[in-house]
Amino acid sequence: MISARPVSLSILSAGYCVHPEFLTLRGGALRPVKFPAGYAVIRHPDLGPILFDTGYSVRFFQETASLPDSLYRHITPVVFEERDSALHRLREAGFDPADIRYVVLSHFHADHIGGVRDFPQAKFIYLQKSYDAVRSLGRIKALRAGFLPGLLPEDFLARSLPVTPESAQREFQHSLPFEKAFDLLGDGSLLAVEMSGHAAGMMGLFVSTAEHDYLLCADTVWSSRAFRENRRPHPVAGLIMDSRADYEMNFQRLRQIHMQYPELRIVPSHCREALAAWGTGGIR
Q1: What is the structure's pLDDT at 48?
Q2: Would you say residue 3 lies in a domain?
Q3: Which end of the chain is more exposed for a tag (fewer CB within 10 A), N or C?
Q4: How far separated are the first and last CA of the chain, in Å rounded?
Q5: Which DSSP state fits 28?
């Protein structure tokens, strides 16, 4: 196991967006394809269900009802049904929204934070660098960064547990291209690493179940084919990246991890293949 304490993991999606594949995968199709808004429910043996991102919620449509924010949903059309929301899935599994103690946010793009208001008691865990990159942006710059501040609750900062360079870290026992990981819960169950590039301070998460090791790599790539076939996005995609250099560094890290540990399940948030292979359709 990569992490020190096993958990249960359910990989799901709450809606999807549509845009041409070639923008995310060089040589990909010109036609629009679906990109699921993935999230994960991690069932910790002591702390119960923990969310890694949330996917979309109906609030995305409320926040993009008028200009200039409506440009978001016109440029990247979104399809969402309430039955796929993190809130609905958790209720189906018998959990009250107040049961969710922690929501881990990989970064602050709207398709990752769309449902955070649904969990009124949750503490929010994220890399401080990630929130610092968006918190002071004006409306137009926030839109260009994919950030809709109205998706966050008014007491967001009061409920935040930001991860800083001084936060507790743990050395990996495996030969991975990260020196250390942030030990988010202090028990070795959730090991976070910075995977900036697509967004500043973006977080990836190593977790282990009793059967498999996983890397939830957020938007480090948009599909498993990218790192498996060594296919980067179209250069135009660089226009929406925080850092092309950081993107390249973490792309190469994924390639290295995949080649060293082919049995490790690397899960990009928007990968239809990973969702089809390892998605659970419900919470286990």
Answers
A1: 96
A2: no
A3: C
A4: 20
A5: -
